[in-house]
Amino acid sequence: MEREVDVVVIGGGPVGENVADRARAAGLEVVLVEHELLGGECTNWACVPSKTLLRSSAVLRAAKRVPGAAEAITGELDVAAVLRRRDYWVSDWKDDGDVEWLAGIGAELERGHGRLDGPHRVIVERPDGTELTLVARHAVAVAPGSDPVVPPIDGLADSRPWTSRDATSVKHVPERLAIIGGGVVAVEMATAYAGLGADVTVLARSGLLGAMEPFAGEAVARGLEGLGASVRLGVEPVKVERNDADEVVVTLGDGSTVTADEVLVATGRKPRTEALGIDTVGLEPGAWLDVDDTMLVQGLPDGEGAGWLYAVGDVNHRALLTHQGKYQARATGDVIAARALGRPVDAAPWGAHVATADHSAVPNVVFSEPECASVGLTARAAERAGRSVRVADVDLGAVSGAGILADGYEGHARLVVDTELGTVVGATFVGQDVAELVQAATIAIVGEVSVDRLWHAVPAFPTVSEVWLRLLEALGRPSAVDVKTVETEEPAETEETAA
Questions:
Q1: Which of 482, 481, 480, 459 has the alpha carbon at shortest distance from 469?
Q2: Three-state DSSP class for 144?
Q3: Where NAD(+) is bound, by residue (predicted)?
């Protein structure tokens, strides 16, 4: 079977859904191809279930930090109730709601594995064994996402290791969990499982959260240890095996061992392009896809044509975050429609049809203990990019709003300011409930708001946002105070950057 449509989208996660939504809103005929659950990784196995697993124990810890509320706590965390709430938020791994939504916008769903078969062509291998060939008049957008990397450690693949999907869809919490890795997935799952009562051991080759400011990973290491987890840094797993008692034994480079009931591998991601058919258009299977700021795939060989293939979300390796992928998807759906309908394309920086923020204003929140939130450049990254920077550091615990929020509040905040531009280019916040602070910093960076103007953005008292005033005081007005350039170190390679 073969049919023509305006746009084919491969991948029905939030990214693919947003491409379909924007293209369909412009009146284009859209077919979305998905072989698993609509909603994709984020809805079913990543963001949504992981955050629900984390939330209950975080609330309990927060209540214990407030006298009066602490005395009202008379029981322990109900793990079964946490898992039931997780099941509710993933709709028991059914996608009926997403199917209904897709039909509601007038897009069509094709269940099956989609792969390219030359320019403009997509073959859908349906569950019943039949095949459908879709020919896109205007565009094919691929948004297949990414998969976890399982490193070639002796015996690891045969030891039935958990990946992130296993960790977020668990039906029973193991007594002991070993985690290989030091990135976001590793620390969030360590936080979640320690909160659920497991004996957690984190095995990281270098520090934690290596892509963030160093103080973030240091705070999380202390926080995990405060939850009873063991954090072992600078260690290298060299062998993993399951013994006769069905325990997992991890042997480290120094000869020591860690024994657990399960081992979670959290050492980075790889693109789902191995079976995507990109070799039929001259691209390398298994590779990340290079795109321009409108998400058009670059590097197509001569004769394959241009302007029809888009790669959106994780697969382009610009920012492996759902919110950033959805941002790319909105621009992509709009630019596909503009090009198809002969409308003007706004591809200038910060234009309607580009994802400019991918380069300088990517917000990220790690729901660890404590939370870590950042956007833009770290001081180290800014200096490596050749920028002249000034840095302001503030103890969040000294902010009145934070002290009222929780007794003994501990946290840290940093602004990175470009001295030539006089604007914020990076911000990092570490502490309880700092996730909500990052949007203000994102707006300041995207809007290129001068530090002088920020003095007039008055934070309400007594809120944690008062940290903005303290950060500006630490910087001083550029015309009045000379703040030293920060001394930075080269970043250590982490499990995620290595992958």
A1: 459
A2: coil
A3: 181-188, 268
188 is in an annotated binding site: yes
Q: Are residues 126 and 162 in the same domain?
A: no
223 labeled binding residue: no
pLDDT tens profile 272-311: 999 999 999 999 999 999 999 999 999 998 766 678 999 9
Buried b (16+ CB within 10 A) or exposed e, 151-167: bebebbeebebbbbebb
Q: How far apart are CA 428 and CA 218, in angstroms?
A: 13
With CA atoms as reference, report the closest residue to 206 among 422, 405, 494, 14. Answer: 494
Residue 51 lies in a domain: no
- Tens digit of pLDDT for each residue in 350-378? 999 999 999 999 999 999 999 999 999 99
Q: What is the average pLDDT value for the chain, to the nearest integer? A: 94
Cα separation, 75 vs 63, in Å, equals 13
CB burial readout 314-328, b (16+ within 10 A) else e: bbbbbbbbbebbbbb
User: CA–CA distance from 269 to each of 65, 101, 151, 263, 495 (Å)?
Assistant: 36, 29, 11, 17, 10
Same domain, 490 and 448: yes
Q: Among 244, 267, 290, where does a domain finish?
A: 267
- The predicted model scores a pTM of 0.93
Task: Quote the CA–CA distance of 234 and 477 in Å, as a whole number.
Answer: 41
Residue 181 annotated as lining a ligand binding site? yes
**Residue 493 scores a pLDDT above 50:** no
**Number of neighbours of residue 456 by Cβ within 10 angstroms:** 7
Residues 6 and 18 in one domain: yes
**Is residue 187 a known part of a binding site?**
yes
The three-state secondary structure class of 135 is strand
Give the rounded distance of the alpha carbon of 222 from its chain centre. 23
- CA–CA gap between residue 426 and residue 438 (Å, rounded): 10
pLDDT at res. 304: 67
Looking at residue 479, its pLDDT comes to: 45
310: three-class secondary structure by DSSP: strand
Residue 480 is part of which domain span? Answer: 370-498
Q: Residue 183, annotated ligand binder?
A: yes
182 annotated to a ligand binding site: yes
Please give the backbone phi and psi of residue 108, each rounded to the nearest 5 degrees, phi first.
Answer: -110, 140
Which phi and psi angles does 137 have, rounded to 5°? -65, -40
Could you give the number of structural domains in the chain?
3
**CA 417 to centroid of chain Cα atoms:** 25
- Does 184 belong to an annotated binding site? yes
With bands split at pLDDT 50, 70 and 90, how would you rate the model's confidence at 490?
very low
Task: Find out whether 185 is annotated in a ligand binding site.
Answer: yes
